[in-house]
Specification:
By secondary structure, the protein is mainly β. Helix content is about 0%, strand content about 65%.
Length: about 90
């Protein structure tokens, strides 16, 4: 499983290649799920996917390791696509 590190004050862009209708990144913060909707992108060569901008509420989490999952939507159905860890680094 991949671990993605990010400083509390940082902004990180993540992406997934897919031909799905929608995509969402979900951060499991224990008592809450922080969803981040993907923005559709088309790369050179015609590949399509979604980009996620991890910032805002996600960066207000205390430093730690959080489960992060990527979900895609085709038609009206959501499917789990990938599982990673988000390592939020605090301090100066």
């Amino acid at each position: 499983m991949t671990t993605i590190s990010l400083h509390q004050a940082g902004v990180r862009r993540l992406g997934v290649l897919t031909d799905a209708d929608g995509a969402q990144l979900r951060i499991d913060a224990g008592s809450a799920c922080i969803p981040i909707d993907g923005t559709a992108i088309t790369l050179e060569g015609g590949a399509t996917g979604f980009e996620f901008r991890v910032s805002g509420p996600a960066m207000m989490l205390p430093p730690g390791l959080y489960p992060l999952s990527i979900w895609t939507q085709t038609g009206g159905d959501w499917a789990h696509r990938a599982q990673h860890n988000l390592h939020i680094i605090g301090g100066c």
